[in-house]
Amino acid sequence: MCRPDLMNAGCIMKPIKNRWPVGEQAEFLEKLGEMMMNGYTLLDALSMLELQLKRQQKTDIAFGRRKLAEGYPVFQVLNMISFHKAAVSIVYFAERHGNVPFAFMQSGELLRRKIEQAEKIKKAAHYPAFLILTVCLIVYMMKAAIVPQFSAIYDSMNIETPFLTSFIFLFFESFSLLFLCILAAAAVFWAYYLYAFRQKPPEDKMALLIRIPLAGRILKLFNSYFLSLQLSNLLTSGLSIYDSLKAFESQPFLPFFQKEAKRLIERLKQGEAIEHMLNGHPFYEKDLSKVVAHGQLNGQLHRELYSYSQFLIDRFEKKAEKWTGLLQPLIYGFTAAMILILYLSMLLPMYQMMNQL
């Protein structure tokens, strides 16, 4: 167990397994930050919020208050009760720069925005996904019952099956094979994730993920957002760029940023400017280096980085709306094509047999 008087970022106690729903984490953190900004101490705010929580959550907060009283830092207590890593890391940096109430508000807002975007995507995909499942069920019934009947009729009447009808029959016969191929591909990807991807260094993982369409774009936005926001907070507290990067290096929650900070520190020691390090960096937005250079010139790097982080949040939300808007037409188009194939599979054989009579 970690001794409170020797605690640091590398000494992390085992988290409680039961994690709060992310939405409840966001609401709790925002309320906690708001109460502390209104003059409550951390322990008083926790005691007040504990009265409004569910039974298990009350137990977690009571446990957390005991640990705080023993001298454990806030970020470790949040980690112990299995709060989201992004929220824990923001609070970790806050304990370095001193503005913990603001960090609670920031982390709650970040989690809330994540939930909102996830809900938008779910809402956009919910009905189309239901349609696709329904069509797949109908396709299976056609393959199992109706298509064999038509094939038997063609054989019994010695009628040559037209090309289009043969193609539709082949589509139904291949449907199970296609489904099995999708399952096999999913199993291969899952095995690769478990036995190969998880063993890679953080920078290799990021280099691979950044190449994935859409997901890579989201990662670039998040990396740039998180780095600019936390650097801004640390610089605002009076730390130098070097000391701010040392804070990134010492946090254990986000291994990628830990390794990135170590690499940037080594290049700083060699005399290279941070804006040059970030210029053309594949893991961040292209304009991040320009923002850093501009902030260095006018002596307001902390302000420039904070403003930039807010621009990135807006940019992410606009892109998420755009991608969600593209998702529905694509799913509807696929569903319409499947329905057309079903329609043709019923009508074409009947018309062709009528022409043969």
TrEMBL record:
Subcellular locations according to the entry: Cell membrane
The keyword Membrane belongs to this UniProt entry's keyword annotation: yes
Membrane topology, from the record: Multi-pass membrane protein
Keywords: Cell membrane, Membrane, Transmembrane, Transmembrane helix
Keyword NAD found: no
Transmembrane segments: 127-147, 167-196, 330-351
InterPro entries in UniProt: GspF/PilC, T2SS_GspF_dom, T2SS_GspF_sf, T4P_ComGB
Family statement drawn from the similarity comment of this UniProt entry: Belongs to the GSP F family.
Name of the protein described by the UniProt record: ComG operon protein
Lineage of source species: Bacteria, Bacillati, Bacillota, Bacilli, Bacillales
